[in-house]
Design goal:
Layout (H helix, E strand, L loop, with lengths): L2 H22 L11 E5 L6 H12 L3 E5 L2 E8 L2 E8 H4 L1 E13 L6 E12 L7
Parallel strand pairs: 1-4
Antiparallel strand pairs: 2-3, 3-4, 5-6
Length: 129
């Protein structure tokens, strides 16, 4: 058995052992926290394809954007499995205009005006293909 298979088996067995322990010790209090498991897909060659593959396996899943991170998640009772990647790996930034804003300069001048792009993100349906 290779290391990945050994690690996978150990990880899954650990979850089974934890669930079995809690199930067979009804007087043991439930932990205060639920389990959130994160899987990062930042290092894949074709991140969009990999996230789509994982989303298909999750079946019913929720998609969200949190700042610059794109997240696909599925609830398992009170627990959550999350697949995350960079938003720009699965969405396309579209510049729709510009705006002038004042930002702190941290020098003798308290603020300075700069022009920045107004960006909207186009996230086509991940599983459309």
């Amino acid at each position: 058995m290779n290391n990945e298979a050994t690690d996978r088996a150990a990880w899954v067995n650990g979850l089974h052992d934890l669930a079995n322990f809690i199930d067979t010790h009804p007087s043991f209090p439930l932990p205060d926290l639920t389990i959130s498991v994160w899987l990062s897909t930042y290092d894949y060659d074709d991140t969009k394809a990999e996230v789509a593959r994982l989303a298909r396996q999750l079946g019913r899943a929720e998609k969200n954007v949190v700042y610059s991170t794109f997240v696909v998640s599925r609830d398992f009772g009170p627990h959550k499995l999350k697949v995350e990647t960079a938003r720009d790996a699965v969405c396309v930034a579209k510049v729709v205009g510009t705006e002038e804003v004042e930002i702190p300069d941290y020098s003798d001048v308290p603020t300075k005006k700069v022009t920045r792009d107004i960006v909207e993100w186009e996230c086509s349906p991940l599983l459309a293909d």
